[in-house]
Amino acid sequence: MVAVAALEYDAELMLRVKEGDGASFGLLLEKYRLPVIHFLYRMVQDHGISEELGQEVFLRVYRSRATYEPTAKFTTWLFRIATHLALNWLRDGKNEKGQERLDDDFGQTASRDVPDRRPTVEHSLVHQAKLEEVRRAVELLPEKQRAAVLMHKYEEMEYSQIAAVLNCSESAIKSLLFRAYESLRVRLAHMA
Amino acid sequence: MKCPIETQENAELLLSYSARRLNPESTAILEAHMELCPACQEFRDGQRALWEALDQWEARPVSADFDRRLYRRIEEQDRMGWWARTFGSMRPVFLRPALPLAAMACLVLVAGFIIDEPRQTVVPTAEVPQVVREVEQVERTLEDLEMLRQFNLVAPVSNSDLSRS
Fold this sequence. Notes:
Chain A has helices at 2-18, 22-44, 47-63, 74-93, 100-113, 121-139, 143-153, 159-166, 170-187. By secondary structure, chain A is mainly alpha-helical. The longest helix of chain A is centred in the N-terminal third of the chain and has 23 residues, at 22-44.
C-alpha cells in the first residue's frame, strides 16, 4: 500500500512538473538525487562521471516533462534513463577510464590516516582493501548483471521493475540475478 | 517443498530470503526446508556473507553544488530555446571519446581533398560554353542553307502556277 501511494505521489509530482510547477521538480530531485547518483557511481565507479551522468538524468527528466505519461512507475522510468546513460558510457568509455580511478578512494584515505598513527589505521586499511575487492568483483560482472544487482541490492527494486528497466522478462531477470550473485559469491568467498 | 537449488522457479525464494524480502509464510517454509538441505544452507550462508560484503560499499556523498549546477543548465537551456533542446541532448554524445577522434579524421580527409584539388587539370569554365555555342551556330547555319536550297528548287514551279491562275 505504501509503495502504491509512493508511486502515485511521484507520478503526480511529475504531472505537476508537466504543468509547469518547478517546485515539484525540486521535490523529485530531492528524493531521487542520492539513489540515482549512487547507482551511477556503482555502475561507472567514477565519482565525477557519476555526477555528470546524474545531471544528464535529471536534465532529461525535466526536458521530457511535456511528453511525460505515467504509464510505468516513476522510478522505473527514472532508472531506465540512468541505466541507459551508464551503459552507453561504459560501452563508449570503458578503455578510457584511468587506472587512478581504481585507487582514488584507497589512496586518499591511506594518506590521510597514516600520519595520525591511530590504532584504527590497520583496521581502516583492511576495510579499504576489502572495499576495493568488492568494487572490483562488481566491476567484473557483465554490464546488465551489474545493473540488475545494483538495482536489486542497493535500490531494493522489485524483479518486475528491474525487468522493465532492462527491457527483459521477469524470469530472465531472476536467472540473471541468480548467476550474478553466484559469480560474486565465488569471487568474494575468501572474505566470508 | 521442492529444493530451490534444484528447481529454477524456486531460486528467487532464496534470493528474496537472503535480501530479507520474503513474506513470513514463505520464510517459515523455506527455513524448514533448509534444516534438512545442506545445499540450501550453504547458499544461505554464502549469500549472507556476500550481502554483508556489499553493504560495506557505501557511495560517496554528492557534491554540494550539484543542484546549483543542474538548475544553471536548466536555465541555460530554457534561455537558449529550441537550439539547446535539440543539440543540448547531444552533450553525452560529445563526452564519448571516439567522436572527437572521428571528427578529427573527417577534418583531415576534407583537408586532404581541398589540398589535392589544385593539382588536377582544370578546364577553363568560360571556354566550354563558347565552343559549344559556335558549333551550334555552324550547325544551324548549315541547316538554314539546306532549307533555302530546297526552297529555291520548289519555288519556280509554284510561281508559274500562281501567274497562270
